[in-house]
Write a structure and sequence with these properties.
By secondary structure, the chain is an alpha+beta fold. It is built from three helices and four strands.
Amino acid sequence: MRGGGSNNNVVVFGADWCGDCRQTKAWLRTNNVPFTDIDVEHDADARDRAIELAKGRRNIPVVVLPDGAVLVEPTDADLASALGDRSAAST
């Protein structure tokens, strides 16, 4: 499924209160992966898009990779595998 990201950046659909979202963004920052952060809590269109990308699931974060692949609630290990092992992911 194509995610429709731009700039070849990773796109993270999430919310500030979400611990998994904070962990995903921390991993991306630590590994110098540029990303666009989209808040689904205050943007109904973004929330609908995240649900669509996640094939109906309402879990966050929804991460769209530069190639259009979509990860839902990825672990650090999932991110490392999908984006190239930029560090030794511990989870």
